[in-house]
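Tutorial, part two.
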Amino acid sequence: MAKQDDIAFETLGYKDWSEDNQRSPQNNAFIYQAVMDALRKHTRSVGRFDAKSFSR
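Running the prediction step on this input gives:
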């Protein structure tokens, strides 16, 4: 999660992780990517989608 956290913070241009920033739907693609990355460390057959499939 830390890697995607850093990527989201920079990509979305946050100055801090405010309450509103933490709850923003813009974070969904980054959360999804972190979960899929973790699952793929254990098995490759977890799904064909990645964060690029979602609009930000």
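The chain is about 50% helix and 0% strand. In part three we will examine how such features are distributed along the chain.
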